[in-house]
């Protein structure tokens, strides 16, 4: 009962004012209490297959009925309360843009910063709000003080935009790249860590680690890799594009110096919203991607100097956080992993099928990539679309040739049943 009272109290608080507007609509909050009331004693794992609850969650989205979207890893839709917030803030902005955006709403960014920091488990003065993971990590990569001959370590599964950023620094400044060859799929933490430590030398200044590999869905043991890096005074950057609001963790758990993510993925925040984390002691020494008046400032806001920005989208991040907390981080993860296992279990015995992500929940979440003998990734992608209007994304990288399947909490079991039946038609 204590947990229930705490939960209801939190929801009620969320329905209080955000200036003149509620963060969570009172009707939504009341609806949530009614739905969760009988289920409050259920563990997140027990609730993972409760279709009544997840059907209610689904009805808070406006997912298309004309196709099955299983590429939520690219950009996820945001729930109706977030859509409404964007519309509300945009409408008011248009009454007098320079007044509302720069004098009124600008103050609201600090509320959002505090909410993001609480969600991430860090100090608000370590959080910058921006547009996406690329902007966050490029800010980190290009802002690091490094010189010719300095080494940095990436993996063979680095995201293309980060790869290009490092490539530019290599070409312009003579930095030296070392590449960790990650075994995949793998549940061998020791082997994954060794892939990185084998590349560390006395010249290594920084390592970039993918928390959840976008190509496959593999979760990497970031904290274990970071521990080895710290022994050698190596800075740690984490690409959290697919992990934040998907996996259950706080940023300090990772023992990293820098973290970047896109909020329009698993948090289901407005499109073009992201977050940068930087340890307080690193801020002053770090150069901003878009310079402000004091490049050596220790104020995290120096990384938000973007010019005119989408303020309504930024403010609506608050509604996305509240929706996420209402569903519950643990409930959400268990449902996401359940959805992944639901379809995988029904196709894994098909002759010729292969998977590039472990089933173990310690090493995976919702995202996984599969291949089919005799078919390329683009061919699988086209078959799923033409046969059943299932939207996915083909993956071809480092020996991987398949299609990435990414459900989200609004995805129904009937959607996955359709995926299963369509995969069976391939052979």
What do these coordinates show?
- This protein is of the alpha/beta class and 427 residues long.
- The chain has 3 domains: 1-41, no CATH class; 104-319, 3-Layer(aba) Sandwich (Aspartate Aminotransferase, domain 2), CATH 3.40.640.10; 330-424, Aspartate Aminotransferase, domain 1 (Alpha-Beta Complex), CATH 3.90.1150.
- The protein has helices spanning 2-14, 26-36, 44-47, 51-58, 80-93, 97-120, 133-143, 160-173, 189-197, 222-231, 280-283, 311-315, 317-327, 329-345, 377-388, 413-424; strands at 17-18, 21-22, 68-69, 127-130, 151-155, 176-180, 204-210, 235-239, 258-262, 274-278, 353-355, 368-372, 390-391, 393-397, 400-405.
- A 7-stranded mixed beta sheet has the order 4-10-9-8-7-5-6, sandwiched between helices. A 4-stranded antiparallel beta sheet has the order 11-12-15-14, covered by helices on one side.
- A hairpin with a 2-residue loop joins strand 14 (393-397) and strand 15.
- Helix 7 runs parallel beside helix 8, helix 14 (329-345) packs parallel to helix 16 (413-424) and helix 15 (377-388) crosses helix 16 (413-424).
- The protein is globular.
- The model is unreliable at 1-22 (pLDDT under 50).
């Amino acid at each position: 009962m204590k947990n229930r009272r705490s939960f209801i109290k939190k929801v009620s608080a969320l329905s209080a004012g955000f200036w003149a507007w509620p963060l969570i609509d009172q009707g939504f909050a009341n609806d949530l209490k009614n739905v969760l009331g009988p289920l409050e004693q259920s563990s997140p794992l027990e609730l993972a297959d409760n279709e009544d609850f997840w059907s209610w969650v689904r009805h808070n989205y406006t997912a298309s009925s004309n196709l099955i979207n299983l590429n939520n890893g690219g950009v996820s839709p945001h729930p109706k309360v977030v859509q409404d917030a964007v519309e509300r803030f945009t409408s008011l902005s248009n009454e007098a843009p320079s007044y509302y955006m720069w004098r009124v709403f600008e103050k609201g960014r600090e509320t959002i910063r505090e909410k993001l920091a609480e969600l991430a488990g860090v100090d608000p003065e370590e959080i910058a709000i921006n547009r996406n993971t690329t902007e966050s990590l490029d800010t980190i990569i290009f802002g690091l003080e490094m010189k010719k001959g300095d080494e940095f370590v990436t993996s063979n599964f680095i995201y293309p935009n980060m790869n290009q950023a490092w490539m530019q620094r290599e070409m312009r400044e003579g930095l030296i790249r070392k590449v960790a060859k990650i075994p995949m799929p793998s549940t061998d933490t020791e082997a994954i860590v060794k892939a990185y430590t084998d590349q560390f030398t006395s010249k290594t200044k920084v390592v970039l680690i993918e928390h959840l590999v976008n190509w496959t869905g593999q979760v990497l043991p970031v904290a274990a890799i970071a521990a080895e890096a710290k022994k050698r005074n190596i800075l740690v950057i984490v690409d959290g594009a697919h992990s934040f609001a998907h996996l259950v963790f706080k940023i300090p758990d990772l023992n990293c110096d820098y973290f970047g993510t896109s909020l329009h993925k698993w948090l289901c925040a407005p499109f073009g919203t992201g977050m940068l984390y930087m340890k307080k002691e690193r801020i002053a020494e770090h150069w901003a991607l878009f310079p402000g008046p004091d490049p050596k400032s220790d104020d995290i806001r120096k990384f938000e100097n973007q010019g005119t920005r989408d303020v309504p989208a930024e403010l609506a991040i608050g509604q996305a956080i509240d929706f996420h907390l209402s569903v519950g981080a643990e409930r959400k993860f268990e449902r996401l992993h359940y959805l992944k296992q639901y379809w995988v279990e029904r196709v894994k015995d098909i002759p010729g099928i292969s998977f590039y992500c472990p089933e173990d929940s310690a090493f995976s979440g919702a995202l996984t990539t599969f291949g089919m003998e005799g078919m390329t990734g683009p061919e699988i992608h086209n078959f799923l679309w033409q046969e059943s209007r299932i939207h996915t994304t083909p993956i071809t990288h480092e020996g991987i040739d398949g299609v990435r399947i990414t459900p989200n909490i609004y995805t129904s079991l009937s959607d996955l049943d359709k995926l299963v039946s369509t995969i069976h038609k391939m052979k």
